[in-house]
Amino acid sequence: MNAAKRFRLADPLAILLVALALLAIWQLASSLYFDANVAPQFRAGAISGADPTVPAEMRVVQMKLPLPNLVLSALVNPENAAQLWLAGLITLRSAVIGFVVGGVIGFGLALLMVQSRLLERSLLPYAIISQMVPVIALGPIVYSIFKDENVARILIAAYVTFFPVTVNTLKGLRSVDPNALALMTSLAASRRQVYWLLRIPSSLPYVFQALKIAATASVIGAIVVELMGAQQGIGVTILRTQYYGPANAYKLWGAIVVASLLGLLFFRVVAIAERIALRWQPEFRSASA
User: Fold this and answer.
1) Which of 88, 149, 195, 233 has the lowest tally of Cβ within 10 angstroms?
2) CATH class of residue range 66-288
3) What secondary structure, in 3-state letters, does 66-107 show?
4) Sequence ranges of the domains in the chain
């Protein structure tokens, strides 16, 4: 066993160490910021956020950069935890459905465009143009058309997913080794066999790179829709807690943490699926060795 393998940290341990380091930095920065901007006699009231005698500029300090230990306390508080995680799962459910729909559309569109350069030149510009509309502008339009927050979340999640999948899949389908393609031709392989046995497997590394990008983007897209007037979801919770001001500062940041964790969780699920589906890839064979 060489030195690199002997001292290599397992992924969960490395993630935990980085998280602890970031929390320590956050705690130090927020403590210094709090002490510098809140007079000693107002600190207890500024932390609670509900004391009207605290000057307004001091009451909002914890909304800008809260103490992480109080955010964590809000996260584990039974009154908050169930609401935050339930809202997060509602958002994640729509994001996953939209992610699947967008992935299927993107993959199918790439398969269509790879059939000829004419199809690619005809369709790809429209796929590019579709991405010129910001999600924050498209969200209200979709929501106002369908009047259904679940449909709107799914459509926006699909919208941010299909384009990277289309472009990466198209590149992957065209990245086939010419020698392998010549061998398949010499063996009289049919067009379907060439795609099923060669082109599609060759494209999978590119597809999963796009899916990992789209995993977090789909969650963000679903949250953007929720900010437009939905009734449920982690975006709604963020909006409502922000509206109620400093007294809900820690719950607000707790909701932001939940949203971040959901995006991270979704990314990790896609990464695990990539490792399973592409276990024949050298990078995954060496990682498991």
Assistant:
1) 195
2) mainly alpha
3) CCHHHHHHHHHCHHHHHHHHHHHHHHHHHHHHHHHHHHHHHH
4) 10-65, 66-288
